[in-house]
Design a protein that fits this description.
two-stranded antiparallel ribbon
Length: about 80
Amino acid sequence: MDAETLLKVFRADFYAQALDKIRFNPKETENQLLKMGEELLKLYIQKFPPDNLKEVEIRFEVPLANPKTGRSWIFPCWGLWTR
């Protein structure tokens, strides 16, 4: 994924989240925060170009069971493993 695509994804996600009524700090506007986020993402992309990234987080899921009865619980335990 190239840098421009990452910025487009960031913008789309930002606007999607802003559809909910988010209360911003009175001293900041939605547009200011969007620009700040874009600048932070650009700095990150400069330091860690997307072409070099392989995998950062790996999702895992483990079934949970009662150790005495062996009965499985409805919901598994899941999380992210960071390399």
